[in-house]
Amino acid sequence: MNITFSLYTRETGNNSQMISAINSSTIQNSHFSSNRNTTFIIHGFGSTGRKGWVVEMCLLLLEVENINCIAVDWQEGAKGTYISAVNNLRVIGAEVAYFIKTLQKLFRYSLSDIHLIGHSLGAHTAGEAGRRIPGIRRITGLDPAGPCFEGTPPEVRLDPSDANFVDVIHSNAAHFPAVGLGISNTTGHLDFYPNGGTVMPGCTDLLPEMKQSEFEVIIADATIFGGCHHSRSHEYYFKSILYPTGFLGYPCKTYKSFDSGGCFPCPQEGCPMMGHYADRFPAKLKRENQKYFLNTAADPPFATWRQKVFIQLSGAKKMRGDINLVFHDSEGNTKEYEIASGDLSQDQLYAKYLDVEINPKNTTEIEFLWNKTLFTLLWARLGAETVNITHGDGHRLTFCGRGTVTYGVPQLLTPC
Question: What is the CA radius of gyration of the chain?
Fold first, then answer.
């Protein structure tokens, strides 16, 4: 299978050093440092560890942390049929475990300094390595593969016992009859289901409906559906390094309950951040199989901040139209969100849950904007008397407006 381990450090820059546990002098003569944490990144079916997202993630991690980043390539074993790749991952997991044991022998390296990140079949590969060496600090599963693993015993897939802390991002979970490449069951201590975990906004590839037996035949022939949804897991992790607070997960029983406004704001112990900083959550080991939900944006950087917005109107007693809020940040970005549409009255309080793509810490101002329907009087005026915003951490802000404006004219709101 021609398995290789490529070491990236701040000393190597954009290049890498090939290191081998069989020829351990390559490790000793490299820029590997036993004084740094080590992250292994393992790709999945039909992919490679020599270029693309694996290398890009190593380079980004090195910008924020002085670590040893090792890109594991098993491209020769990951091509061909899906079933053969499933069988091969046992060997890859054993190779990764052997490499870690070599680090222990050479440097007395601590398992508490090791983090394994695996996508798809790579997630179960990380689990296999962790099963062979108990005590690894952390394993992150990026949409662990579903076919051949859904409903199987913990010994043959990623599960919470494979590391001291296991966090999982589900982005293409299989919910038959819809086809999905990822596993839907919880497989970690913290399991995140962005946008419900199956279909990701911004992806245009279709998820067809078929019988499970038909899907297994297609997978065996290496035909992939839902590749964009499946890849979103490592794209979300990548962006979470740069926008840690933009991927807050809310504990909820179902996505439907979360999406309708339930489970907001965060409970007393707070909410974990999906992705790279999930291990900073104090209650991460409170129990296994904790489910967390969030919504993401359709386009990079995908980060959103959930808010509950209340608007008290001033002006006309009653009219028809729609009311919107426009958020501005310090970099000149703006985003407009509709709050309500239909009958509008100053006697009513309008509320809505928003997943805002503007970081609250960078928000410089908010504008109120309304548009009339065809039969609304031309001289009608409307304004926002107050806008109350509750953030996920429970923090509240109130913005006040002065007077009223005609349709299409923005009204600037300032903190009260």
Answer: 25
Exposed (0-12), middle (13-18) or buried (19+): which is 276, by Cβ within 10 Å? Answer: buried
260 is catalytic: no
How many alpha carbons lie under 13 Å from residue 148 in its C-beta half-sphere?
18
Largest CA-CA distance found in the chain, in angstroms, rounded: 82
Q: Reduce the DSSP state of residue 388 to 3 states and report it.
A: strand
Query: Domains of the chain (ranges plus CATH)?
Result: 4-294 (3.40.50.1820), 306-415 (2.60.60.20)
**According to the annotation, is 259 in a ligand binding site?**
no
User: Is 157 a known ligand-binding residue?
Assistant: yes
Virtual torsion, Cα 286, 289, 295, 299, nearest 10 deg: 110
Catalytic residue, chosen from 6, 16, 73, 143, is 143
Query: Pick the catalytic residue: 6, 120, 231, 240?
Result: 120
| SS3 category, 304 | coil
pTM of the predicted model as reported, rounded to 2 decimal places = 0.93
Q: What is the pLDDT of residues 12-32, one digit of tens each?
A: 999 999 999 999 999 999 999
Q: What amino acid occupies position 33?
A: S
DSSP 211-227: -HHHHHHHHHTT--S-H
Is 159 known as a binding-site position? yes
Q: How far apart are CA 5 and CA 40, in angstroms?
A: 9
pLDDT in tens, 30-51: 999 999 999 999 999 999 999 9
Q: Identity (one letter) of the amino acid at 268?
A: Q
Task: Give residue 206's pLDDT.
Answer: 58
Which of 93, 119, 123 is CA-nearest to residue 1? 93
**Residue 143 bears catalytic tag:** yes
Catalytic site includes residue 120: yes
Residue tagged active-site, from 43, 170, 229, 230: 230
DSSP secondary structure string for all residues of 262-296: TT-S--TT--PBSSTTGGG-TTTTSSSSEEEEE--
Q: CA-CA distance, 416 to 414, in Å (whole number)?
A: 6
